[in-house]
Specification:
There is one protein chain. By secondary structure, this protein is α/β, with parallel strands linked by helices. It has 2 domains: 223 residues, Alanine racemase (TIM Barrel, Alpha-Beta Barrel), CATH 3.20.20; 97 residues, Lyase, Ornithine Decarboxylase, Chain A, domain 1 (Beta Barrel), CATH 2.40.37.20. The chain is built from 10 helices and 17 strands. Strands 1, 10, 11, 12, 13, 14, 15, 16 and 17 form a 9-stranded mixed beta sheet that branches. β2, α2 and β3 form a beta-alpha-beta unit. Bound molecules: pyridoxal-5'-phosphate (PLP). Pyridoxal-5'-phosphate (PLP) binds next to loops.
């Protein structure tokens, strides 16, 4: 099948570009004392996670137990859940996965660790935990230094759990160029890595082994990798229009295919993809190959292209490709990817972890 024959709206992956991104990451990693643990929250599709393993990733991250369940079913053997799991039912599900794969989880609270410890003991297993440090983003995590050492000390006294290292992801800096500019982003990264290093030193001085320090995403890994044992980028494999200026060495491999359904004014056309098929939490999407236009998503099933000159380039029925502004939330709206090479559909991949909110 050719791209032109796909019913819209539909998500396309340009396989040549996706493989180029994988190669770019692999070549950059070569010779470095650093492991890649790619984040599944972006592609939500096991075949892509396995491609990342083929290109050198040592395992994967998941954000939700539901994502980890999909990965385990797909045979993945090494999963780090980079989120706090506190609901007893979810803890139960997560620890049951240990029978099939190595599961580790992050923690930032002793009450939660106690619950993990008791459940793991009941199930006769031991769960590796990494302490999340708030390296500056003020999302989750304990404060660097003393507070982190104290939590590590408490973990060391509990059975059923084992302290494995530190989770230090600075989400707020990944695309900070847009808000504070590149120079300031570099200054902030320096502050983050100082917090990471001093916290690790303090834990080791207190007599505990820090096996793994993990962090860094698509937009920061090249600037801070020397302070980590593992990096956890997700977006790099497919990319989106917001991320591109912050990690220009990766290409946008993901587009939304849409059809022009109406041409109501000379400088405005309508396409068949609205808020139900493309997310706008990072702003409106953009039209591939047409710089002089602006897209808006005014409603659930309608998107619009606005031309600068009073000159419409399209007729109804024509297919267009749109770059999402935020890939994770867009992918989560779809059931499948069309994997395309040179305009021919090579495969259709179900997005098996889409909608896994729990
Ligand atoms: C904890 C964590 N790690 C890794 C990532 C992946 O980051 P990116 O998509 O910026 O590479 C995210 C993204 O939100 C995250 O929350």
């Amino acid at each position: 099948m050719k791209v032109e024959d796909i019913e819209t709206p539909a998500l396309l992956i340009d396989l040549n570009l996706m493989e180029k991104n994988l190669r770019t990451m692999k070549e950059w990693l070569a010779g470095k004392d650093l492991r890649l643990r790619s984040h599944f929250k972006t592609p939500k599709t096991p075949i892509i996670a396995w491609k990342e393993i083929e290109y050198g990733a040592i395992g994967v991250c998941a954000q939700k137990v539901g994502e980890a369940e999909v990965l385990v079913q797909a045979g993945m053997k090494d999963i780090l859940i980079t989120n706090q799991i506190v609901d007893p039912v979810k803890i139960d599900r997560m620890i049951n996965l240990q029978r099939y794969s190595k599961i580790q989880v992050i923690v930032d609270n002793p009450v939660n660790v106690k619950c993990l410890s008791e459940t793991a003991l009941k199930k006769n297993t031991k769960l590796g935990v990494l302490v999340e440090v708030d390296v500056g983003g003020k999302r989750c995590g304990v404060q660097p230094g003393k507070e982190t050492v104290e939590l590590v000390r408490q973990i060391s006294k509990m059975q059923g759990v084992e302290f494995k290292g530190l989770q230090c992801y600075a989400g707020y800096l990944q695309m900070a160029e847009h808000k504070i500019g590149f120079e300031k982003k570099m200054e902030e990264i320096k502050k983050v890595t100082e917090r990471v290093d001093t916290t690790k030193d303090e834990i080791e001085d207190a007599g505990f082994d820090v096996e793994t320090v993990t962090g860094a995403g698509t937009g920061t890994h090249r600037y801070e990798y020397e302070h980590y044992d593992e990096i956890q980028p997700g977006s790099y494999v497919l990319m989106d229009a917001s991320y591109k200026p912050c990690a220009p060495w990766f290409d946008i491999a993901l587009t939304l295919l849409a059809t022009i359904t109406s041409t109501p004014e000379p400088n405005r056309v309508v396409f068949d993809a609205g808020g139900k098929s493309i997310s706008t939490d990072y702003g409106p999407p953009s039209l591939k190959d047409f710089k002089n236009t602006k897209c808006t998503i005014p409603s659930d099933e309608h998107g619009m292209i606005h031309f600068n000159e009073s000159e419409n380039h399209f007729d109804i029925g024509e297919k267009i490709e749109i770059y999402p502004s935020h890939l994770d939330t867009t992918i989560n709206l779809h059931d499948k990817f069309y994997a395309v090479r040179n305009r021919e559909v090579e495969a259709v991949w179900p997005i098996l972890a889409r909608g896994k909110f729990v």
